[in-house]
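Researcher: We're teaching a course module on how sequence relates to structure. For the next exercise, students receive a sequence and then see the predicted structure as tokens, so they can try to spot secondary structure elements on their own. Here is the exercise chain.
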Amino acid sequence: MDFAAVDRALHTAVEQGVFPGAVVLVNQAGTVCYRKAVGYRSLEPERTPLSEETIFDLASLTKPLATTVAIMLMVKEQKLRLDDCVSRFFPNFSMQGKSHLTFRHLLSHSSGLPAWRPYYQEIINREVHEGKVGLTSTRSAREFIYTQLQREKLETPPGQKAVYSDLGFMMLGAAIEDISGLGLDQYCQEKIFRPLRLPSLTFINLELMRRHKLHLLLDRYAPTERCPWRKRILCAEVHDDNTYAMGGVAGHAGLFSPIDEVDRLVSVLSACYRGEHSFLPAEVVREFWTRQEGVPGSTWCLGWDTPSPQRSSAGQFFSPHSVGHLGFTGTSIWIDLDKQMHVIVLSNRVHPRRENDKIQAFRPVLHDTIMQSAKVVSSQ
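Model: And here is the predicted structure for the students to work with:
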């Protein structure tokens, strides 16, 4: 293996402003064969160095690494079944034609729920117009948003169309809390992160931080956007607007981690898939990592995506038998199940502004370069 071409591609990406910096890890057959940090942790208010231990806002990688794993555990423990109706646990969710919507629909983005809603703006408006000062980032704000979710109308009937939906995973987060009696962050900490010895893979619960006057070492974290409504560069504070309004903990975003701990969790899931680890039964992981063929045109498994037939972010060399996910802040995971290989990219491409979308064109180029450098292309 010779990863010199990967080094060149990453340095060029920094020079061209794809991201301030990135950390990339390649794991093949259980061995880390490439791990490199390039570029800068921050550009504003000053340039600071990036390291391989830098902690990133994982954004939507929260969906597969926290929420989906939590649902896997609940399926294992028979706390719920994939084809249970969500209204079994939330009777009010049956409103607006949602009575037959299942957990499988939510996980495969085929629920018919809208992709997104600016709930955070409703929270801000309630603070301004109803005098509810300090509502943002509280449990009360989360409960308000959960109530709004249950009132949402469907845009299409469940199971007919795949539309990537934050709202579906926000509802999954609510279900995990309702069934377990714990906050989503507590459940993931007690059932996933602590047992697997992942101390830095965590949600940052903003309400607890304020209550206990806790402070984080900010130079360990990659900052994200200069937020136009929070009026500051965000660092160790979730970038996603709705998650921030909910106190930093939600089913669709909020997770932070350095790359090594993402690698460890992905390695455990891959080993479970092969029946080589006891954390989850192989049959559960295999069901979640199987494309849901019943939804026309969908590439989605349960909580994970698969390569698109054209212009996949995974590039052209990952096998069709691969699963992955992207995060808005510039993060991604792709796992080739045939080649027993995964690639993790953590960046803060939204620093200092979210309008930077150069990573879309760069992702497939980087993955192609990695696969060619690892000399696994010919085995496809």
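Model: If you want an answer key for the exercise: The two ends are 17 Å apart (CA to CA). The longest strand covers residues 31-42.
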